[in-house]
């Protein structure tokens, strides 16, 4: 049993993570960041939940780049093949649920 207070979590680098759980090949990790990630496509599906801060999520749909501002409590679901990149506005903490070993 463990309680994690997401607002207290700080990593030593952008996108540093604390592993919360790995269940049947699916990982749940808490990330801290103050810098954008990189454009990527996951091996499987991904659920991205903003716990603290604001994140601009850029993604491509049918080759067209789109953007959505995600606030605390907002959830971004990336289906298989969805190319995307997260850009925090300042500091953000996000919960990411994805297949073990995903980018």
Description:
The protein is mainly β. Helices cover 0% and strands 57% of the residues. Strands 1, 2, 3, 4, 5 and 6 form a six-stranded antiparallel beta sheet that branches. Strand 1 and strand 2 (26-33) form a beta hairpin. The protein is globular, with a radius of gyration of 13 Å. The mean pLDDT is 95.
Number of distinct beta strands: 6
Low-confidence stretches: none
What global shape is seen? globular
Count of alpha and pi helical runs: 0
Structural class: mainly beta
Share of helical residues: under 10%
Specify the biggest β-sheet.
6 strands, antiparallel
Average pLDDT figure: 95
- The value of Rg in angstroms is 13 Å
For the terminal residues, how far apart are their CA atoms?
27 Å
Q: What share of residues are in beta strands?
A: over 45%
Secondary-structure element string: EEEEEE
For this structure, the quaternary state is: single chain
């Amino acid at each position: 049993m463990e309680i994690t207070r997401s607002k207290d979590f700080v990593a030593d680098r952008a996108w540093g993570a604390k592993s919360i759980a790995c269940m049947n090949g699916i990982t749940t990790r808490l990330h801290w960041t103050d810098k954008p990630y990189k454009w990527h496509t996951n091996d499987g599906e991904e659920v991205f939940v903003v716990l603290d801060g604001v994140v601009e999520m850029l993604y491509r749909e049918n080759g067209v780049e789109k953007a959505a501002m995600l606030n605390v409590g907002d959830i971004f679901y990336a289906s298989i093949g969805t190319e995307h990149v997260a850009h925090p506005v300042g500091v953000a903490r996000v919960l990411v649920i994805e297949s073990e070993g995903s980018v």
